[in-house]
Design goal:
This protein is α+β, with helices and mostly antiparallel strands. 16% of the residues lie in helices and 24% in strands. It is built from 1 helix and 4 strands.
Length: 68
C-alpha cells in the first residue's frame, strides 16, 4: 500500500486542496481532491518543479532561463 504525504501548505482544515507525494518503487504525485489520478515523476523532474514553484516572486510567471 502506498503511503501518501500531504504538503505542509495544505489549505483548509480537511486538507482537501493539496498535492500529495508518495514513494514506492517510483515517485508519485496526485491532487487530494482527485486521488484516483496519479502521475509518476522522476526525482530530477520533481526537483525542477519544486525549484520553479518556490521561485520568488512566482505569481504565475515562469522564471526566465539564464543564457550561457
Amino acid at each position: 500500500m502506498i503511503q501518501w504525504q500531504k504538503s505542509t501548505f495544505s489549505s483548509g482544515s480537511d486538507g482537501a486542496s493539496c498535492i500529495e507525494l508518495a514513494e514506492d518503487s517510483s515517485l508519485f504525485l496526485r491532487e487530494s481532491d482527485d486521488p484516483d489520478r496519479m502521475i509518476i515523476v522522476a526525482p530530477v523532474a520533481l526537483a525542477a518543479l519544486l525549484r520553479q514553484v518556490s521561485y520568488e516572486p512566482f505569481h504565475g510567471a515562469v522564471k526566465p532561463r539564464r543564457s550561457g
